[in-house]
Design a protein that fits this description.
single chain, 275 residues, alpha/beta, Nucleotidyltransferase, domain 5, six-stranded mixed β-sheet
């Protein structure tokens, strides 16, 4: 399975054992999937499935929560904030459709809260066509669903990022948006990653959460939506701002991975390097 194939990163993690201590401030991982927003991989109208989230220190997350909720309250937004509703001017944003000043002000404040928290974005996207082109056996080995490929990839990368941000190892509390039909299998994959990889040193707990209880998951929902929308519109302001923020903070780990066919075959150890 994908969870056992990242040999290069394991070597990099081993080298961290001699690193300078970066502090022991507890890290929290907030993840949200946009599988609901892009549909199931069997839907012929959908091209990508993915997952995206943020990694940050607990003290900064606390300040973020206050800033995010204040922005929503002052702008008249009833939480939880859902980016898919905001983007389409649906639900509570139905009356905002022609009010560009208000829309830009809210989005600007929410993105600013993310940047002020120094929350590090990470995401992974799987092209459905590439996943479906694999053999049945290969798809089963990858978790039977492109969502699980993205989940494992992001979890690996978040743990690696956490390793770089905190030494000696400080367990990361990982909160994932609850998704019907996926959370149970995702928890099994998470447990396997923790048990069989050196990354497990940095993986503290797995918690399914609801956006109404975690403003950080609302932020992850925003980033997940933008990551999915990028493949249709590469000039989105919020996406570009979050990417600029990620590039400024990058410390040796990736903030985005396209899990195309080459990537998936490599994860399975079946990539022919001579081709």
């Amino acid at each position: 399975m994908l969870l056992a194939k990242n040999v290069t990163r394991t070597s990099n993690l081993k080298s961290l054992l001699a690193a300078v201590c970066l502090g022991r401030v507890r890290l929290y991982l907030m993840l949200a999937t946009y599988a609901d927003e892009t549909g199931h991989h069997d839907d012929p109208q959908r091209r990508f499935v993915g997952i995206a989230g943020f990694l940050g220190h607990s003290d900064k997350w606390n300040r973020f929560d206050a800033e995010w909720r204040q922005a929503c309250r002052e702008e008249g937004v009833k939480e939880p904030f859902h980016m898919v509703e905001f983007a389409a001017s649906r639900g509570q944003f139905g009356s905002w459709k022609d009010d560009e000043v208000r829309r830009k002000r809210l989005l600007g404040r929410l993105v600013a809260a993310i940047k002020n928290a120094e929350a590090y974005p990470i995401g992974a996207v799987v092209p459905i066509e590439d996943f479906n082109s694999l053999t049945a056996g290969q798809r089963i080995s990858l978790g039977s669903d492109p969502y699980h490929v993205a989940f494992q990839t992001v979890t690996h990368e978040m743990a690696f990022a956490g390793a770089l941000m905190s030494y000696p190892p400080e367990p990361i509390s990982m909160v994932y948006a609850r998704l019907k039909g996926y959370t149970g299998k995702a928890m099994q994959l998470w447990d396997a990653i923790k048990e069989y990889n050196l990354y497990g040193l940095w993986m503290g707990s797995f918690t399914p959460g609801d956006p109404k209880d975690y403003s950080q998951l609302q932020a992850a929902d925003l980033w997940a939506y933008e990551l999915g929308a990028y493949w249709h519109d590469k000039n989105r302001w919020a996406f570009q701002e979050i990417v600029r923020h990620a590039l400024k903070m990058a410390g040796g780990h990736r903030f985005f991975q396209l899990c195309d066919k080459k990537f998936m075959l490599g994860a399975l150890g079946e990539l022919d390097e001579t081709e």
